[in-house]
Design goal:
It is built from twelve helices and ten strands. By secondary structure, it is α+β, with helices and mostly antiparallel strands. It has two domains: about 30 residues; about 220 residues, B-lactam Antibiotic, Isopenicillin N Synthase, Chain (Jelly Rolls, Sandwich). A hairpin with a 2-residue loop joins strand 6 and strand 7.
Length: about 350
Amino acid sequence: MSWATVQPDRLLRDRARGTGRVGGRDHRRIMLRQLFAPQLVLLYVLAASTLYVHFRGKQRLRFARQLGDHSTYLAPYNVLMYAGSAVPNTPVIPVEQFPELKKLSDNWEAIRDEATRLFDEGFIRAAAKNNDWGFYSFFKSGWKRFYLKWYDDFLPSARTLCPKTVELLNSIPNVHGAMFAMLPPGGKLGAHRDPFAGSLRYHLGLVTPNSNQCRILVDGVECVWRDGEAFMFDETFIHSAENKTDVNRIILFCDVERPMKFGFMTAMNRWVSHNIVKASATQNVDGEHVGALNKVFGKLYELHLASRKVKDWNRSVYYTLKYSVTALILGLIVVSALR
């Protein structure tokens, strides 16, 4: 065989190998581009953040419940808050780290007097309508509330009915939300975590049994409500509450801005609080402002009731439908990234 015959065959083989190498590189680039498509990156961040939130602390929800819990959807934001927190990431935080709140405990009797009058007059109560998404599940335990402010200005009814408490709270700018909250004898709030880590929870005892039988457990740490005493905790840890006495428990309940290490994170957290979280505001009486989230919740409540009926009828069918819808949504996101 002549050199003239061999050379074209070799050239063809070399070109084929070169084309294969180029084709392989293109395929890898396409695969990487698909794996790191924006919608999948968001899923990776959500999954990693959810795992961190789930395993944070000693106590946790069942993983299936965590997947559907509202704290999952805010997990990426909350992880940022934990990373930048200027106070310890512990279940209970020394209230002495917030000296501006001392004026509340110093004036607890004046606050108590306004709270007890409101309770006696029937203003501390469950929501009259389906417009309190954040706490609607508490009402079946007998838990009741009267909002003073909720990530916005003070409610008109609060200004009218409890001016001393409003004046005190108004002098503390980092209190973003406040209410009077009542837990009746025998009342119990099951284990849960709140969804927003941009704030910390402050409780001041006003009318309490002064007994260890009336308490809250935050990631297993016991805090007991006592008249005139306050404590601070991170509500994004698993917590539960109970009143095993025959005395109503009334407290001042406040959401206090989480201190951050960096100014830009403080600014970001305030923007989220005043532009997004305030959408969960609701009313004490007709005519007061209801935030967008609670307006939507009111519209969707009938759908929620229908889903509860399915759950009561057959839990297996309920969870099959619930997880099928979740899988369908995730599947559509993945398919959109791989197209």
